[in-house]
Amino acid sequence: MKNNIKDLNENKEIESIIKIWLNSNLEAHNFIPADYWHENYDEVKRLLPQSDLRVYQKNENPIGFIGIMDGFIAGIFVDSDYRSQGIGLALLEDAKNRYNSLSLEVYEKNQGAVRFYQRNGFEIISSEIDVINKEIEYHMTWNKNNSF
């Protein structure tokens, strides 16, 4: 699966991955009003190229991606037709090979994501209320030196 992961080709793929971002957030965060994601769409689209973006492709079409800024995982997003097929794990493993430590924030209510990250060596180190959405967010970290 690893050979299906590459750096983002900004001009060609940004439209595809921003749609994956929107749909993934709408599906995974049904506890947050959909308007929040729609209102942030243009800003996220503008900021995406500033991240280290790695794209998982099938037949040269993006079906998933991970965005990282200075070791902080902004998110792993996989097209709904391709979830639970190891794509998110492949993207995370790719990131672990490229970084010595990673951190992220995930909503407590997104239990599938919390379990995924815990299974893959991330630990919850703190929690706080997201001031915008009034939801509990976990801050999780992973360090290569602590991995088995």
Task: Note down, in words, how this protein is organized.
The protein has 148 residues and is of the alpha+beta class. Helix content is 36%, strand content 32%. The protein has helices spanning 10-28, 34-47, 87-98, 111-119; strands spanning 5-7, 52-58, 61-69, 72-78, 101-107, 123-129, 136-143. The protein has a seven-stranded mixed β-sheet. Helix 1 packs antiparallel against helix 2. 24% of the residues are buried.
Give the topology, please.
Blueprint: E1 5-7, H1 10-28, H2 34-47, E2 52-58, E3 61-69, E4 72-78, H3 87-98, E5 101-107, H4 111-119, E6 123-129, E7 136-143
Parallel strand pairs: 4-5
Antiparallel strand pairs: 1-2, 2-3, 3-4, 5-7, 6-7
Oligomeric state of the chains in view: single chain
Structural class: alpha+beta
Mean pLDDT: 89
Summed up, the helix count is 4
Sheet with the most strands: spatial strand order: 1-2-3-4-5-7-6
**First CA to last CA: what distance?**
22 Å
Radius of gyration: 15 Å
Pick out the low-confidence regions.
none
How much beta, percentage-wise?
Answer: 25-35%
Overall geometry comes to globular
Largest sheet: 7 strands, mixed
User: Helix fraction?
Assistant: 25-40%
Output the helix-strand order. Answer: EHHEEEHEHEE
Count of β-strands = 7
